[in-house]
Amino acid sequence: MIAIIWTYKVRPEHRPAFEATYGPDGDWARLFAHQDGYLGTELLRGEDESYLTIDRWRTQADFDAFLAAHRADYEALDRATERWTVEEVRVGIWEGGFQRDHLRVPNAE
């Protein structure tokens, strides 16, 4: 599993539209859902009114296939929403799905 993480600073007057579009049932999630391997989106708001999205995909290859098939729609939605934000940063891609045994913290005794 991979998680693609973005942060946003949103203009106050556009927050309701941003939340509706970038949330788990919004336009972005509906667009991503056209591709096998899309696992879901989370939208979080910070204390400073910034936002963070986490888009989860089964594999990087699934996300790459989505972009190959839907790049024009992706770019159109991005252009339609870009005036809502003051700042948009792709933080990066994280991999998950590790075995629990690999995540053990050594005993601090």
Walk me through this protein's architecture.
- With 109 residues, the protein is an alpha+beta fold.
- The chain has one domain (2-97): Alpha-Beta Plaits, CATH 3.30.70.100.
- It has helices spanning 15-22, 27-32, 60-81; strands at residues 2-10, 38-45, 51-57, 85-95.
- A four-stranded antiparallel β-sheet has the order 2-3-1-4.
Strand and helix layout:
Layout: E1 2-10, H1 15-22, H2 27-32, E2 38-45, E3 51-57, H3 60-81, E4 85-95
- Count of separate DSSP helical elements: 3
β-sheet strand percentage: 25-35%
pLDDT averaged over residues:
92
Top CATH class: Alpha Beta
Tell me the series of helices and strands, N- to C-terminal.
Answer: EHHEEHE
How far is it from the N-terminal to the C-terminal residue, by CA? 33 Å
Low-confidence region ranges = none
Number of domains: 1
Cα gyration radius (Å): 16 Å
CATH topology, what is it called? Alpha-Beta Plaits
Side-by-side strand order of the widest sheet: 2-3-1-4
| Tally of DSSP β-strands | 4
Tags for this model:
single chain; 109 residues; alpha+beta; Alpha-Beta Plaits; four-stranded antiparallel beta sheet; 3 helices
Summarize the structure.
The protein has 109 residues and is an alpha+beta fold. Helices cover 33% and strands 32% of the residues.
